[in-house]
Amino acid sequence: ACGGLGYDSDTVWGRNTAVPAFQVGMRKAAAATGAAYLDNSRLFHGREVCTENPWARGLFIDVTKPGLPDENSVRQSFHPNAAGHRAFASCLTQLYDSGLREASCADPASTGNPVLTGAAFDDLFVPLKNEATGSCADLPASVTRNGTAIGGWDCHGGRNQNWWYDAGTQTARTALSHDRCMDVPGAKYDAGATLVVWDCSGAANQKFVRQAGTLRPAAATHLCLTLA
């Protein structure tokens, strides 16, 4: 009904493989030519087709077009909608006003207001490694559904093991989706509780602090994150 088509596996491939590869190529091209570079690859995370407040259309058929339906009837499908175009305009305006050569733009709190970050996202997302075990915080099979448990796995450098700890917001985001943050389920700060990813909300149970080489819930700094 919302216009989303195709297989989930194709969508996952697009988000996790195709778009990142395109973004890497664009960054290299900008660096080689001296052009300004804006990473918008995560701008629509949480705003995809079929989400609550999408910034893109799914299959859209223009029934007002004169004549019989043809390829022009669906030419606006799978493109930004009005809100999506406003988001792009906001990011470009912020980049122009900043004077930066490299920057990234996303909607980190799902407020509808894109925020410019003065760095390329690829430089911000890094593995969270347990120095004792050598394993990394990992989202199994690159699944980012709300409630997906965060585990530990041998470090391999994949996007499902890369995180951005933003000291300003005290949140830890997965590289797979800018709309998924590390979360203490139900704000139950119990030893042995399994952390999950959830829609980034800025709530207290998604805030963490770095302390003495550890990552700790801001509301329960006597506890540390460990990997089983």
Automatic annotation (TrEMBL):
Database matches in InterPro entries? Ricin_B-like_lectins (IPR035992), Ricin_B_lectin (IPR000772), SGNH_hydro_sf (IPR036514)
Q: Name one GO molecular function term.
A: carbohydrate binding
State the source organism's domain of life: Bacteria
Q: Which keywords are on file for this protein? A: Lectin
Annotated SUPFAM superfamilies:
Ricin B-like lectins, SGNH hydrolase
Enumerate the spans annotated as Ricin B lectin domain: 126-227
Official protein name in the record? Ricin-type beta-trefoil lectin domain protein
Its taxonomic placement starts with: Bacteria, Bacillati, Actinomycetota, Actinomycetes, Kitasatosporales
